[in-house]
Amino acid sequence: MLRISKVSENPSSVELKLEGRIVSEWVSVLEAEILDWAQKKRKVLLDFCAVRFVDERGLRMLKRRLSGDIRITNCAGFIETLLKGGSK
């Protein structure tokens, strides 16, 4: 399960706190949320402080979507390594 909570929002950005696991069908839910905010011309800050696991599908989606307007903070070291292309 993945919980997505809006922490803050202003005219130029939004911060979303993610809790749980980014797996299976939750990957498309998170991607839709990111795209919705991006279409509203908002920078998206994803707080990963409570993300416990990201599966391969989630890693692929995040690598595709991460840019200057979409960033991750408070990411566990092992997830950060995977996002940068390191081995599992």
Defining traits:
single chain; 88 residues; alpha/beta; Transcription Regulator spoIIAA; 36% helix; 39% strand
Provide a descriptive summary of the structure in words.
The chain has one domain: Transcription Regulator spoIIAA, CATH 3.30.750.24. Helix content is 36%, strand content 39%. The protein contains three helices and four strands; from the N terminus they run ββαβαβα. Strand 1 and strand 2 form a beta hairpin. Helix 1 packs parallel to helix 2. The model has no long low-confidence stretch (mean pLDDT 94).
This entry's quaternary arrangement is single chain
CATH homology superfamily: STAS domain
The overall pLDDT, averaged over residues, is 94
| Rounded radius of gyration (Å) | 12 Å
CATH topology: Transcription Regulator spoIIAA
Number of folding domains? 1
Tell me the strand order in the biggest sheet.
Answer: 1-2-3-4
Break the fold down into its secondary structure elements and pairings.
Elements: E1 2-9, E2 13-22, H1 25-39, E3 43-54, H2 56-65, E4 70-73, H3 77-83
Parallel strand pairs: 2-3, 3-4
Antiparallel strand pairs: 1-2
Helix pairs in contact: 1-2
Q: How would you briefly describe this protein structure?
A:
The protein is of the alpha/beta class. Helix content is 36%, strand content 39%. The chain has a four-stranded mixed sheet with strand order 1-2-3-4, covered by helices on one side.
